[in-house]
């Protein structure tokens, strides 16, 4: 096994080589995907991140030293290959490479803990145990190429619209919403927690005069449930903007989701094909469904739900059966939303909170926020929390806080809607759930 010397550098990715490169000398770097030894001729498929290319070794017509190396190859070993491109009707991209030199950088042990060529299907737990191998499959790497495109579009979108990207702390002294879903940690001689949301900090950025901010970062939730849509560590795309109401920021969310879908559809054609997803670009405004009407619709499907309750899983499913694609749920009862949500002025039992749903999946929650110091103190106390525990947050409301609104969009859940996946674990490189903390 050799080191990488300066005279070995990739000349092409496999997907860049086709008939037009016939007779050229190329250098490829990649993994041994498959070996077929027919005696007189050996075929080796080499894989890199974006494709496959065939190495063809006619045993009588190549350098015996090169042939020795070809015979040493094992599946999933990492090699460098120098050779001549030749047209070949049957091979991927219509070309094959006749080797002139091979470097074996790393031999893979056999047998492999799982099969990255997808011939043998593995259960999700086996796959996650050997995630580095699982990620070599195009059906899996496609999910992350789409996620990368999504995150890139999100940043571009916010930058284009005058938002500042911020980074708020993830080591925090108290709960955002006073919930129990927090991971306590030891912080020197004190107790601290992992942040469940950047909520309080992004609001403080409004008092700071930053006007429009966004953050893409980890959120941590000590949720005990073992579902297909919850993880204990997730990525949240958060925004907050001053002098805007809930309707204004819903429009921003609507535009962002559409832009991401347009870009993914345009730039991830191969990935969508691999995943067998036919992405539809939603047109215009997403449908807006009031909480009141949702309750009636859910009850009409014989799923009992009282006004004032949060949506149960059964309720989400019933609603998902009646609603297509993306839609907003609005005018939530104030009681079941966090203290920082602005109540309706005329009818305070309702609020300016909304969720963005995709079929039966919640992907975002947002609201117009309470910006009045006294009202906020009252609302914290009403939730049975001690306002004094929110001292540094509340202080930012006492010296000039603009009216503001914002939302948090779950990046992993959003990616589920783009890739058609049912299990959130599929859309996270190394998912953290109740049972899994490694790899
Ligand atoms: P749910 O009701 O589905 O548990 P939530 O209302 O508790 O979600 P929010 O606090 O509103 O979640 O967080 C905003 C968004 O962050 C959610 O709409 C979702 O997309 C994402 N999110 C929240 N919790 C998780 C989690 N445990 N795993 C993955 N994504 C999450
Ligand atoms: Mg929510």
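-> sequence recovered:
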């Amino acid at each position: 096994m050799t080191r990488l010397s300066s005279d070995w550098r990739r000349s092409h990715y496999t997907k860049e080589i086709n008939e037009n490169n016939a007779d050229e000398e190329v250098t490829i770097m990649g993994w041994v995907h498959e070996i077929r030894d027919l005696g007189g001729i050996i075929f080796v498929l080499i894989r890199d991140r974006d494709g496959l290319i065939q190495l063809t070794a006619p045993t009588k017509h190549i350098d015996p030293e090169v042939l020795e190396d070809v015979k040493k190859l094992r599946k999933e070993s990492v090699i460098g290959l120098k050779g001549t491109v030749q047209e070949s009707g049957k091979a991927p991209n219509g070309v094959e490479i006749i080797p002139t030199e091979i470097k074996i950088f790393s031999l893979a042990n056999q047998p492999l803990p799982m099969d990255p060529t997808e011939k043998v299907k593995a259960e999700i737990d086996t796959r996650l145990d050997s995630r580095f191998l699982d990620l070599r499959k195009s059906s899996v790497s496609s999910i992350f190429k789409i996620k990368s495109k999504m995150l890139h579009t999100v940043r571009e979108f916010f930058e284009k619209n005058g938002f500042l990207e911020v980074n708020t702390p993830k080591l925090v002294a108290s709960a955002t919403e006073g919930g129990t879903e927090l991971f306590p940690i030891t912080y020197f001689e004190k107790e601290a927690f992992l942040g469940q949301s950047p909520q309080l900090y992004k609001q403080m950025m409004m008092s700071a005069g930053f006007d429009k901010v966004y953050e893409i970062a980890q959120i941590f939730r000590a949720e005990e449930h073992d579902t297909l849509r919850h993880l204990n560590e997730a990525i949240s795309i958060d925004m907050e903007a001053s002098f805007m109401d809930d309707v204004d920021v819903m429009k921003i969310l609507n535009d962002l989701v559409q832009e991401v879908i347009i870009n993914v559809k345009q730039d991830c054609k191969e990935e969508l094909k691999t995943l067998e997803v036919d992405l539809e670009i939603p047109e215009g405004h997403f449908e807006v469904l009031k909480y009141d009407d949702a309750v009636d619709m859910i009850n009409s499907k014989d799923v009992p739900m009282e006004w004032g309750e949060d949506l149960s899983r059964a309720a989400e499913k019933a609603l998902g059966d009646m609603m297509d694609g993306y839609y907003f749920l609005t005018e939530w009862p104030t009681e079941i939303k966090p203290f920082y949500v602005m109540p309706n002025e005329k009818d305070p039992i309702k609020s300016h909170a909304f969720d963005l749903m995709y079929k039966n999946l919640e992907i975002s929650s947002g609201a117009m926020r309470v910006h009045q110091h006294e009202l906020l103190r009252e609302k914290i106390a009403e939730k049975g929390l001690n306002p004094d525990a929110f001292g540094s947050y509340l202080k930012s409301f006492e010296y000039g806080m603009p009216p503001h609104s914002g939302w948090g969009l779950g990046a992993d859940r959003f990616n589920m809607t783009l890739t058609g996946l049912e299990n959130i674990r599929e859309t996270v490189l190394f998912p953290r759930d109740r049972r899994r903390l490694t790899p």
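DSSP finds twelve helices and 16 strands in the chain.
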